[in-house]
Fold:
Amino acid sequence: MEITLTHYLVLSTILFSIGLVGIMRRKNLLMLFFATEILLNAVNVGLAAISHYYNDLTGQLFAFFIIAIAASEIAVGLGLLIVWYKRTGSIDLDTLTSMKG
Structure:
């Protein structure tokens, strides 16, 4: 059995669905970051598969930029997460809604 474009797009859809459910059920800020990464990786799989199917490097180039943006997003997000944990002692998103100045 040969792996076709449809297989990759189904995998991408499943990963995207898992990431979407993870974002909607967010209770922990760290899990929100993980779910966002799953969403971005699902898009990367789809872009790379379509790019390979059409023999065009544009999709792979976009996937590369998405990986770079995701890395910077996680770096900034983890920095903010550490500061938030030091201030409140928790990374629960419920404590984030009651911010005090």
The helical segments are 5-24, 29-53, 58-88, 93-96.
